[in-house]
Design goal:
Elements: H1 2-18, E1 21-36, E2 46-57, E3 61-72, E4 102-121, E5 124-144, H2 155-158, E6 165-179, E7 186-200, E8 204-205, E9 210-211, E10 217-234
Antiparallel strand pairs: 1-2, 1-10, 2-3, 3-4, 4-5, 5-6, 6-7, 7-10, 8-9
Length: about 240
């Protein structure tokens, strides 16, 4: 993974120095995601917010980096706390009261990107942007105890229930970027497919009283995205006067 990251960074630097940049921009996105396969047994659909920086060269190749934070409240395993709950499913805190606990999905991913832009008009940056990313992804169950005194769910004990996993990830995206000729609207909409080779990073699963396997598993996500584009550099302004 480190070798791939270094190689791509060197490629970005070489490309930026050797070719004139057609455009560079930041973008901010909202993504709605659907888990597939092994991941779908633990989590339901989720949302993510993210940011991206990219630059496009004169030959329509573009390079960049992006990251997103994933969140959701659909945890499918309703038995996760059975071994520390009463017969009616309640957890007793350190003061002998019923505890109020929320469980949610949390995740993070980051990628280095390389892709190609298909412009239907050479004087307009609108078009189809196809790119591939390599990077890192992680998932966990976030256990919110709201600062209550719950010894069986202190910071260390939570690690036995949160199913925290991480690993190498690859992402394929296809977007349509729209640039208004007078610069009033610059947006992006698209879809992506994430495939990650994940490994559980905890030692023991308290919910099932067993050690976690160190076997790596493929986890998959499909996402639908909308993005706001903020240009920061434009060349050939006599041609690209729609900003």
């Amino acid at each position: 993974m480190k070798r791939i990251s270094i190689a791509l960074l060197l490629l970005f630097i070489f490309t930026a120095n050797s070719q004139e940049i057609k455009q560079s921009a930041f973008s901010f996105s909202y993504i709605y995601q659907f888990p597939i396969g092994n991941l779908a047994t633990t989590f339901g659909n989720n949302s993510a917010i993210g940011g991206k920086y990219y630059f496009e060269t004169q030959n329509n190749m573009f390079y960049g980096t992006e990251a997103s934070f994933r969140f959701g409240n659909n945890i499918k395993d309703s038995t996760i706390f059975n071994n520390i709950s009463t017969t009616n499913g309640e957890i007793i805190d350190g003061n002998g009261m019923y505890a109020n606990i929320n469980i949610m999905q949390r995740g993070f991913d980051a990628y280095l990107l390389v892709g190609y832009a298909f412009h239907h008009n050479k004087k307009n940056l609108s078009g189809i942007y196809i790119y591939q990313g390599v990077g890192y992804l992680e998932n966990k169950i976030f256990i919110n105890t709201k600062n209550q005194n719950i010894p069986q769910l202190n910071n260390e004990m939570k690690k036995g229930y949160d199913k925290y996993s991480s690993g190498f990830s690859t992402k394929f995206s296809i977007d349509y970027n729209y640039y208004h000729k007078k610069g009033k609207l610059q947006i992006n909409a698209g879809a992506n497919y994430i495939m990650a080779l994940m490994q559980n990073q905890r030692t023991y699963d308290f919910a099932n009283n067993t050690r976690y396997s160190k076997k790596r598993n493929w986890e998959n996500l499909i996402g639908l995205k909308i993005e706001i584009i903020i240009p920061i550099q434009r060349r050939n302004k006599e041609e690209f006067h729609y900003f």
